[in-house]
User: What shape does this take?
Amino acid sequence: METTQQQAFQALNQATEKARQLGINANIAILDTAGYLKGFLRMDEAFLGSIDIAMGKAKTAMLFRMNSEAVGEFLRPEANAYGMVNTSGGLVGFKGGMPVKANGEIVAYIGVSGGSPDQDFDIATAGSVL
Assistant: This one.
């Protein structure tokens, strides 16, 4: 299923509203189901270093069709898949990346960076249901 412009904008708008409520200047990336950038917003004064992190969280969620922190369980040093973090151009295994769903179907992926992992998770969650 191809991600529509409307879906990308809706996810960005919902996530941006949550970031404003939390007082966080975030970077928010929306990838289509094939992993290509469909939408991106760097809120005013968002950290430049968080751009790549937001993109990485969305990409990690897309590659495994699950939340980035769930992938992170495999990336821990004591996990049998240790070293996996270096695959696919690098994975980001902490909160803030997840599938975006409409009518129960994955239509995109969102990645957020700019706050704490819990804040990024809350912002991404706000943009993850259309």
Notes: The two ends are 15 Å apart (CA to CA). Strands lie at 27-31, 37-42, 97-102, 105-113. The chain has a mean pLDDT of 96.
